[in-house]
Amino acid sequence: MARVVILDYGSGNLRSAERAVRRVGAEVEVTADPHAALEADGLVVPGVGAFAACMAGLLSVGGEKIIGSRLAGGRPVLGICVGMQILFERGVEHGVETAGTGEWPGTVERLHADIVPHMGWNTVRAPADSQLFAGLDPDTRFYFVHSYAARRWELDSGLPGQQPKVTWSHHGEDFVAAAENGALWATQFHPEKSGDAGAHLLENWLRTL
């Protein structure tokens, strides 16, 4: 049984994430303890609310160092919602720019859409070779709640067979809905709120641990 830590840094649907990951067969612990987070087979970084507040919480528990150390060793990390957004270099909210963890280049910005926040079920466009979305129909819907997103993908590894796999969705404009980049995977939507589709996706992630 895979051991998964849900990183507790004061932000995110911790219990919902815990229940969802446990449902698909993992041993789950919710904690900010660095040793547990580093030693787990997989680390989930949830996040809800403002980018700046999430980054402040992450920094307060040394979460950016935990994420960086795990990735340096090829240890899987899964970011969810704002837990995905803080993986980018920066976020801009209400004209205020906040530094992210910088694992990926790029900026998280407000969506250009008639209705914001983007709230509800939406389809995604995943690459044919995606491991995260393997076995899911193209018309599968996932649950989104957000006003900000990465509107562009700026990382290209340039190495054959190692290009990041980027999944897109659309609300007013295209935005990054998920990404798979080595040991670092993330979703803008909430798999823990996406029913059977979200459970299937989490199972796909667990298979890589």
From TrEMBL:
<dbReference type="Pfam" id="PF00117">
    <property type="entry name" value="GATase"/>
</dbReference>
<comment type="subunit">
    <text>Heterodimer of HisH and HisF.</text>
</comment>
<comment type="pathway">
    <text>Amino-acid biosynthesis; L-histidine biosynthesis; L-histidine from 5-phospho-alpha-D-ribose 1-diphosphate: step 5/9.</text>
</comment>
<keyword id="KW-0378">Hydrolase</keyword>
<dbReference type="InterPro" id="IPR029062">
    <property type="entry name" value="Class_I_gatase-like"/>
</dbReference>
<dbReference type="GO" id="GO:0016829">
    <property type="term" value="F:lyase activity"/>
</dbReference>
<comment type="function">
    <text>IGPS catalyzes the conversion of PRFAR and glutamine to IGP, AICAR and glutamate. The HisH subunit catalyzes the hydrolysis of glutamine to glutamate and ammonia as part of the synthesis of IGP and AICAR. The resulting ammonia molecule is channeled to the active site of HisF.</text>
</comment>
<keyword id="KW-0028">Amino-acid biosynthesis</keyword>
<keyword id="KW-0456">Lyase</keyword>
<keyword id="KW-0963">Cytoplasm</keyword>
<feature type="active site">
    <location>
        <position position="192"/>
    </location>
</feature>
<keyword id="KW-0368">Histidine biosynthesis</keyword>
<feature type="active site" description="Nucleophile">
    <location>
        <position position="81"/>
    </location>
</feature>
<feature type="active site">
    <location>
        <position position="190"/>
    </location>
</feature>
<keyword id="KW-0315">Glutamine amidotransferase</keyword>
<dbReference type="InterPro" id="IPR010139">
    <property type="entry name" value="Imidazole-glycPsynth_HisH"/>
</dbReference>
<feature type="domain" description="Glutamine amidotransferase">
    <location>
        <begin position="5"/>
        <end position="206"/>
    </location>
</feature>
<protein>
    <recommendedName>
        <fullName>Imidazole glycerol phosphate synthase subunit HisH</fullName>
        <ecNumber>4.3.2.10</ecNumber>
        <ecNumber>3.5.1.2</ecNumber>
    </recommendedName>
</protein>
<dbReference type="InterPro" id="IPR017926">
    <property type="entry name" value="GATASE"/>
</dbReference>
